[in-house]
Structures are given as C-alpha cells and as structure tokens.
Amino acid sequence: MSGVMEKFVIASMLMWMVPIAILYSFKYNLVPGITDMSSYSLTLLSGFGAVISVNIIIAFYIYMAMKEPSEKHQPSDAFLAQAKASMRQLKTNETEDAAEARDKQE
C-alpha cells in the first residue's frame, strides 16, 4: 500500500512542478531557438506544453497503476463471520419492525 501512495505523491508533485518549469523556461528564454518568436506565440506554446506535460504525467500514472499486481484480497474468516452475523441480525430486526408496524395498523 505504501508503494501506491508513494507513486501518487510523486505523480502529484510532478503535475505541479513540470508545468511550472515549462512556463518558467519559456518565459526566461531557457529553451534554445525560441528567442525570435512573438510573445503571443511563446504564451501559446508554453501553455500547450504545460497542458501536454500534465496529460503525459497522468497517462504514465495510469499505466503504472495498470501494471500493479491485481491480487484478489481475501477477507479473514473472523471478518466474514461477523459480517454474516450482522446481516442476520439486521434481517431479524427488519422482520420484527415490519411485524410491529403491521400490528399497529390493525
């Protein structure tokens, strides 16, 4: 379970940091070959890059989640016994309540 949380935290951090890094790099001309572009084009390109980076991170996170082993969890016998007893008690309570309601109507 800790591995799943670790992947979630890393993916969440990347979804914040990578787009901000992309926007920063375009704003301060850290990407080579973009100095001759207009500010409008730079804004569009950096925005698209940031959005695409988030989608790539989400897709990678989904891929990693699909790769997780899908072990079928088997509940313990004690838990199953308690659940069955609880269901039996619930059914008897409902039957008694219905009988009382019927008696009150008569």
Word description of this protein:
This protein is mainly α and 106 residues long. It folds into 2 domains: 1-73; 75-106. Helix content is 79%, strand content 0%. It is built from 3 helices and no strands. The chain has helices at 2-27, 39-67, 77-105. Helix 1 (2-27) packs antiparallel against helix 2. The radius of gyration is 29 Å and the shape is elongated. The chain starts with a helix and ends with a helix. The model has no long low-confidence stretch (mean pLDDT 84).
Order of helices and strands: HHH
Count of individual helical segments:
3
In terms of DSSP E residues, the strand content is under 5%
Helix percentage range: over 70%
Question: In one word, what is the shape?
Answer: elongated
Low-confidence stretches: none
**Mean model confidence by pLDDT:** 84
The number of strands is 0
Distance between the termini: 56 Å
The chain-level structural class is mainly alpha
Question: Strand count, sense and closure of the main sheet?
Answer: none
The overall number of domains is 2
**Whole-angstrom Rg:** 29 Å
Describe the structure concisely for a colleague.
The chain has helices at residues 2-27, 39-67, 77-105.
Notable characteristics:
single chain, 3 helices
Which helices and strands, and how do they pair?
Elements: H1 2-27, H2 39-67, H3 77-105
Helix pairs in contact: 1-2
